[in-house]
Amino acid sequence: MSTDMRQRNHANLSIFVPHVGCPHKCSFCNQNTITGQTFIPHAQDVKDVCEKAISDGVDVTSTEIAFFGGSFTAIPCNYMVELLETARRYVRIGFKGIRVSTRPDAISHEILSTLYRHGVTTIELGAQSMFDDVLSLNERGHTASDVVNASKLIKQYGFNLGLQMMLGLYGSTPEKDYETALRIAELEPSEVRIYPTVVLKDTKLGEFYTEGKYKTYELSEAVELSAKLLDLFESLGITVIKLGLHSSTDVEESMLGGIYHPAFRELCEGIRARNAMEKLMGDGASYTFTVRPDYLSKALGHKKSNIEYFHEKGIEVTIKPDPSQVENILIKE
Prior knowledge:
With 333 residues, this protein is of the alpha/beta class. It contains 13 helices and 13 strands. The protein has helices spanning 31-35, 43-55, 77-92, 109-117, 132-137, 144-156, 174-186, 204-210, 219-235, 249-254, 264-280, 296-300, 305-312; strands at 2-7, 10-16, 63-68, 97-102, 120-128, 160-167, 191-196, 198-200, 239-243, 255-258, 286-291, 316-321, 329-332. β1 (2-7) and β2 form a beta hairpin.
């Protein structure tokens, strides 16, 4: 259970319900490793974590109580209602709302009515891919049509819609991943999460990887693709609230391979900034760029990698913050 800052002025108070609602195990999934816990929470645990947040001074008015880690709407109804009823008491005294994460094939009118009555505000769906062959190869147990239908139904009920996708799954390609992003964007979610595939021990994907049946993307390839996806979603007004798995000792100790870096989003943001600067360059050998102060670290790149990149190409780049600047990057002759 943790407080996770999603974006400015919004946080999730995360409560993990690992595997309880999952009808089967997807090829890539080892929830115990990803969440770092096997503990199954109940009403008292929800109460405890909310009370602790209040005592710690968390701004509850911008915080959703979030149930993650499994397919929340596929857990037994009585258990789901137990958790929601407790969470709703805290929404009534100031928390912003309740967020749940689930599967596209675990959504129905009945389920959505229950969620609505108990104060749920946001529903995230694990789409992962919008190609049926990729979903089947990774044993997801649902189709791309399930994602489309569930998304439309969620929006009809007035919930905020979040969609999650994965990069580099077994049977996918960068082209399919980009097309998945396009199809997800067509569903007009308010937010997305992008998870590059990490190969973990004790998974079917881990077996394929060890046997040489599956090869992951190179980190640089995943970073370039993710930078394009950031551009795509943000140009459409869709917020990317998570990019890459959170830094975790459990993941690092259990991973066999795949796309993982503790500062993955920072790498992607750096590439975006680098691409933007290259578009502004001509044939010169020296450039000075001014940036918004909050954009400086992105412009410099992870560990000043952009400065080094241009230096290796024989181009000397200076990047300076300008408090009066509105645009991300401007060239200064």
